[in-house]
Structure formats: structure tokens, C-alpha cells
Specification:
By secondary structure, the chain is α/β, with parallel strands linked by helices. Helices cover 44% and strands 12% of the residues. It has helices at residues 16-44, 49-68, 82-88, 107-120, 181-191, 218-231, 244-252, 273-279, 282-297, 301-304, 310-315, 319-323, 326-330, 335-341, 366-369, 403-439, and strands spanning 75-78, 128-134, 140-146, 166-170, 194-198, 237-242, 264-267, 353-358, 382-387, 396-397, 401-402.
Length: 440
């Protein structure tokens, strides 16, 4: 008899009732704000309130009309693997219309909402339990376990009965655990799994070794994965990464033999590291260069300012020039070797992975990233999900609803269900084959 499936289907969160309630609440709040603005402007000017009110309603109507144009069915292109097809049949959100948020349809507006959300959850210690481990070169790193996903609040709990799957989360180039609190809570609410954030060197604690990597170090992540498996040997490990974290997911899944993730999701992935950096908007590139300087260099100035790479990185005008000197920081032989090691190779079968990208992504624009869907023809374990409006890592629907996280979790949960069914079938075949073999 097949065991009970541990990951039952979650009811579709965007049901008609909930969606209409959310839109009604959003419309009411928007209308109230518009009335307040109209009255304020009317008091400060000689324009009649009626004229201002009519103008506001017209503008709001045109905005809603424009917003409805962006409703679409997600474009899905998947490899031909049999298991992958079975998994996608369980991903119900991919069969529903994608509706970007009415309030923040534009990518820049979504970025502002994300910035506010990051400030709300800035104090990540309220949500995570830290567990330190040491990297190969002596640098300290840590895991952050979502407190509500732990049965007794102890990340080192090795309870033999707790074989729930583990979801590992990876953040972006200057990310912090607080950025992933909404992701972690949404993932736990959907699945009931244990949720952990694998922190990178220099993000949550100062550097003690004069080296860092803005794209993330695979060896460091492998140490974190090993540490998790040592303490939770019976739990299957899944992963979800965003931005630079999604690049680490893509590279780690390149080799299915060594990859320890049963399946992964990469949100807002750049795929070809060199290509996406060269295709990046110049303003965005310059802003990111300043951001990584402040985050890695200025926070560790006493340790890094005497290093030979300090001045070239300090004088870099954009991210492309900054990365051209990164091989001196990470120990690679050349810039070319650094780029090669941080680019995903999708032209061969990988571990199961889903890529979710938006065309209006201000960092990795769809004009570059969308072309990688062609690799579904040669990679049976890859799925490419694409929408036009989603920004970078956001994909908000309703009021800051995490659509991409829900799609990714449905994919991972469906993959786990499929694995459980396969294990049950093997067990049943083995139990039936035993008596028959004895009788023969």
C-alpha cells in the first residue's frame, strides 16, 4: 500500500473570492487616497473639485485599462523528461492567468515595494535561528533557520521522526536574510517544510579572510549544504535562489551527479554571466558597482584596504569594470576563468530546475534572458517560465503577493510528490517480487 503523500495540493490561492476581495480593498484604498489628493489640490488651487475629481477618475480608469493589457498566461517551455511532465501537471498556477499588481505594475514600482518590505523585515533575528559553521579557509558563515519551521526551535535537532524536506534559500548580490523573510514564511505556509537561508561570506558577519565574491562561491555553498546534511540526514534538500543566488543554483545544478538538491528554482536568473553583465543597462551597472563597494569593501575596510585589488575596485566606474578585477580577489587565474566558472551550462542534462524570468527585469532584461528557453530542447530537466511584467525578483500580484515563490514551491512540492510515488511503487514491486521469487 502506497504511503500517504506528505505534500497535499494547496488550494489555489488566487480563488475568485479572495482575488475579488483583494481588488475591492485595493480599489477602496486607492479611491480614498485619490479623494484626499483631490481635496488637497482643490484647496491649494482655484480648480473646482468636480473637475479635479473627474480628471482623477479618468486617470484611474485609464490606468486600470492599461493594467488589464498586462494580464497573460505564463509562457512555459519544458524539457521532454517524463518526470518533468508529470511534475508540471501538478503546478496549477501555471494554468491560471498571471495578473501583475495594480498598484505596482511597473518594474520600478515593484522595486520600491520590495525596498519597503526589506525595511519591514530588516531585523531578521526575530524570524530566524542562527547556526554557525566554518568554511574551508577559516572564514565563518552561518545558516538561518526559520523559527516557525523548527519543531523545538533548535536547528541542530536530529529527531529521527522529523524527515520533512528542507528548503534552502539563496539571496542576491547584496542580500540579507531579512530580504527572504516573506519568501520563507510563504514557502513554509504552503509546504510545512523546514526552511533555511544559506548565508554567504561577508553578508551577516564581517570578513576575517581578505576575499569575497559578489557572484557567490560554490565551494562555500557546498560547505553549507554539507553542514545541513550532517545534521538532517533523512531530509531531502530543495533550493530556491534569486538574482545572484539563482546564478549559484544554475551553476550548482550543472552537474547532476554532485548536485545535492533534489530540485531547484532560479528566480530572475542571468544565465550567461558575461553576457548579462555586458547587456546590463549602464545606469543600473554603475549603481550596482557602488552598491557592492559599500556592502563588501567599505564594511571591511580595515581588512581589505591594504590588498592590491583595493584601488582598482574602488575606481571601477561600473559593474563590468568591477568584475574585470574580481579574479584578483577570488584567486582565479584570469577574468575569463572567473566568468566561465560563474556561468550556467544548460546545453546538457542538469539536475531538475525551474527558471522564472520577467521581460521587464531592469537588471537581467528579457531581451537577453528569454533567448535561453531554447535549451529546453536539449535539457530534459529544465523548465523556463516567462512573463512580461514581473520586475527583478518581485513578481508581485494583488498587494505584494509573491507569485514566483508560489509557482516555485508548487514545482518543488510536485517534484517531491512524484519522488514519493516512485519510491512507493518501487517498494510495492519489491514486496510483490519477493514472494513470487520464493515460490518459483
Amino acid at each position: 500500500m502506497a504511503p500517504r503523500v506528505r505534500c497535499p495540493h494547496t488550494p489555489e490561492p488566487t480563488s475568485v473570492t479572495r482575488r475579488h476581495f483583494a481588488l475591492g480593498l485595493l480599489t477602496s484604498v486607492t479611491f480614498t487616497l485619490c479623494v484626499g489628493v483631490v481635496q488637497t489640490v482643490a484647496c491649494l488651487s482655484r480648480v473646482p473639485q468636480v473637475a479635479l475629481g473627474i480628471g482623477t477618475l479618468v486617470a484611474l480608469t485609464l490606468h486600470i485599462k492599461e493594467w488589464r493589457k498586462h494580464w497573460e498566461m505564463p509562457k512555459v517551455r519544458a524539457g521532454a523528461g517524463e518526470m518533468m511532465q508529470n511534475v508540471l501537471e501538478r503546478c496549477h498556477k501555471l494554468n491560471h492567468i498571471y495578473r501583475p499588481s495594480l498598484v505596482c505594475t511597473h518594474a520600478k514600482a515593484q522595486f520600491m515595494v520590495q525596498w519597503l518590505m526589506n525595511r519591514v523585515y530588516g531585523d531578521h533575528w526575530n524570524y530566524f535561528e542562527a547556526e554557525q559553521f566554518v568554511l574551508r579557509d577559516g572564514q565563518k558563515a552561518s545558516l538561518m533557520w526559520l523559527k516557525e519551521s523548527l519543531r523545538d526551535g533548535d536547528p541542530n535537532n536530529t529527531d529521527d521522526d522529523d524527515d520533512r524536506p528542507i528548503l534552502a534559500l539563496l539571496y542576491g548580490v547584496t542580500g540579507m536574510p531579512g530580504n527572504l523573510v516573506p519568501w520563507a514564511k510563504a514557502a513554509y505556509k504552503m509546504s510545512g517544510w523546514k526552511v533555511v537561508v544559506i548565508n554567504r561570506r561577508g553578508h551577516t558577519s564581517p570578513l576575517t579572510v581578505p576575499t569575497f565574491n559578489i557572484a557567490g562561491c560554490l565551494d562555500d555553498m557546498a560547505c553549507g549544504v554539507y553542514h545541513i546534511q550532517q545534521h538532517h540526514p533523512k531530509s531531502r534538500l530543495y533550493c530556491m535562489g534569486s538574482s545572484a543566488g539563482s546564478g549559484m543554483v544554475a551553476r550548482y545544478c550543472d552537474d547532476p551527479e554532485s548536485c545535492q538538491f533534489a530540485a531547484s528554482v532560479a528566480i530572475s536568473c542571468g544565465f550567461d554571466f558575461r553576457g548579462c553583465i555586458e547587456a546590463m543597462n549602464t545606469t543600473v551597472s554603475a549603481a550596482l558597482a557602488n552598491m557592492v563597494r559599500r556592502f563588501f569593501m567599505f564594511r571591511n575596510k580595515s581588512l581589505l584596504e591594504d590588498q592590491p585589488f583595493w584601488k582598482p575596485l574602488l575606481e571601477a566606474k561600473d559593474l563590468k569594470e568591477f568584475i574585470s578585477h574580481m579574479h584578483n580577489v577570488t584567486g582565479h587565474k584570469s577574468e575569463e576563468e572567473y566568468y566561465d566558472e560563474h556561468s550556467a551550462d544548460l546545453q546538457k542534462p542538469t539536475a531538475p530546475v525551474m527558471f522564472i524570468n520577467a521581460y521587464d527585469d531592469p537588471v537581467f532584461h528579457g531581451s537577453f534572458t528569454f533567448q535561453h528557453e531554447k535549451f529546453a530542447e536539449v535539457n530534459p530537466n529544465a523548465v523556463f517560465v516567462q512573463v512580461n511584467k514581473g520586475g527583478h525578483m518581485t513578481f508581485y500580484t494583488g498587494i505584494a503577493h509573491l507569485w514566483a515563490v508560489e509557482v516555485g514551491m508548487q514545482f518543488l512540492m510536485a517534484h517531491h510528490e512524484e519522488w514519493l510515488l516512485q519510491q512507493a511503487q518501487k517498494s510495492q514491486e519489491g514486496s510483490e517480487g519477493g514472494p513470487k521469487a520464493q515460490a518459483a
